[in-house]
Amino acid sequence: MAQATRQSSLQGELEGCALHEGEFGKVGSVIFWNYAIDGQPKVARERIEAVDQEKNLLVLRVIDGDLTKEFKSFLVTIQATPKLRGPGSVVKCHLKYERIDENGAPPEKLLELFAKLTQSMDEMLLSEV
């Protein structure tokens, strides 16, 4: 099993990820995530479904972990679009999911974590300029 680890500055919320199969950024690769929602540790395994360099697009499918206890399917699409004026990009994260229980809560806390992650990445990239 290939092992590579990347760390995040969001300690306590996003502890990091480990590459379990393939290569970071390559279709078919499997990534294992350690994160927390409301202080509760969570895990997720995702397979990279699509990568489009020209469109700055990444599609991930959750294949195992805590989310599979609440959702039949869970697909994450992330796309960065360069701003028309000035430096930087606008990042959009789209979640497509089917709940196991129709009365279950939507993954709002996960969206909050994605927003924090995006802001953290923005701060890191701006500090390198």
Automatic annotation (TrEMBL):
> Pfam families, per this entry?
Bet_v_1 (PF00407)
Identify the stretch annotated as signal peptide in this record.
none
Q: Which SMART domains match?
A: Bet_v_1 (SM01037)
Domain Bet v I/Major latex protein stretches: 9-128
InterPro entries per UniProt: Bet_v_I/MLP (IPR000916), MLP-like_ligand-binding (IPR051761)
List this protein's GO terms for biological process: defense response
Domain of life, per UniProt, equals Eukaryota
What is this protein's name?
Answer: Bet v I/Major latex protein
Q: Which organism is it from?
A: Arabidopsis suecica
